[in-house]
Every structure is written in C-alpha cells, then in structure tokens.
Write a structure and sequence with these properties.
By secondary structure, this protein is an alpha+beta fold. The chain contains 5 helices and 9 strands. The protein has a single domain, classed as Small Protein B, Chain: A. The strands form 2 sheets. The chain has a 7-stranded antiparallel β-sheet. The termini are far apart. The relative contact order is 0.20. Keywords: Cytoplasm, RNA-binding.
C-alpha cells in the first residue's frame, strides 16, 4: 500500500513539473476551409479580468474574427467573448476590439505581408498556455477559390475511403 502512495506522489510530481500544457478554448474551424494558411504566429491578447474568467468557461466565438494592423499595433476584431456570468458591472462589451501582444518585428513583418494583395490575418485558435496565459494562434492566409474548396473536399473523401478500405483489409 505504501508503494502505491509513493508511485502516485511521483506521478503527481512529474505532472506538476511538466505543467498542464495547452488547453484549447475555441478553434476557428471555418478558417482552414476558407483560407490557405501560409504562416502561423502566437500572440497574447490584452483582456480584462472578467473576460479571462469567461474564457475559463469556454464562452468564446472566433467565427467571423479577423486581425488588422493600425498605427504599428495589431488588433483583433469580431471575437465574441460572452459576458462573465458573475461579472455584473465589471463586464465589458463582448464584441470590442482587443489588442494583440506581438513583438515589434513581428508586427512590422505582418504589416509588410498584409500590404500584398490577397493576404489576410486570421485567428485560428484561442487557448491557455502552460502558464495559464491566454494566447491566440493567428495565421497569415490567402483566400481559397471555389475550385480549391471542392478539391480539398474530394481529397478528404478519397483519404477517408482509402482509410476505410485499409481498415477492412487489415481485419
């Protein structure tokens, strides 16, 4: 019995040392369908306390969100963070624009890339990192044409069919 307690303590210590890891709050699933993602970046978000508590409840939507760079600052538009249930008067506008925390070189690089025709900055995922900070994965994206979307759907269907046939064959 004492041995199992030691094993449990060692496992708990290892888990504590490794940290909880990345906990996803919300993903923008339509972004990968609508865009080709060329590069991804990790950015922090400037939030209020009630917004962070609301994100702990996973009350967030990234569906129509986008990022802009204005006056050498990156801004996140269109993200809806639901008001915190116990926030009362401290809740802020759920659809307000939020500043992204990026390095100056990253902002300048993204600004230069966004000046090219056909590129956009799209949020892909919002999550808590290992240190309980809210982070956002943003992607530098090019829009897909209708035939690109159809080709992706056909490719996914064929991959699914191949996997099904291989699974039946390996039984």
């Amino acid at each position: 019995m004492a041995k199992s307690k030691v094993v449990r303590q060692a496992a708990a210590a290892a888990a504590k040392q490794a940290g909880p890891g990345k906990r996803t709050i919300a993903k923008n699933r339509s972004a990968r369908h609508e865009y080709f993602i060329d590069e991804t970046f990790e950015a922090g978000i400037e939030l209020t306390g009630t917004e962070v508590k609301s994100l702990r409840e996973r009350a967030c939507q990234l569906t129509d969100a986008f990022c802009l760079i204005r006056a050498r600052e990156a801004w996140l538009h269109g993200v809806h963070i639901h008001p915190y249930s116990n926030g009362g008067v401290w809740n802020v506008d759920p659809d307000r624009k939020r500043r992204l925390l990026l390095h100056r070189r990253q902002i300048d690089y993204l600004d230069a890339k966004l000046r090219q025709r056909g590129l956009a900055l799209v949020p892909l995922e919002i999550y808590f990192d290992g240190h309980n900070r809210v982070k956002l994965t943003i992607g530098l994206a090019r829009g897909k044409k209708l035939y690109d979307k159809r080709a992706d759907i056909a490719r996914r269907d064929s991959d699914r069919e191949i996997a099904r046939v291989l699974k039946e064959r390996n039984r």
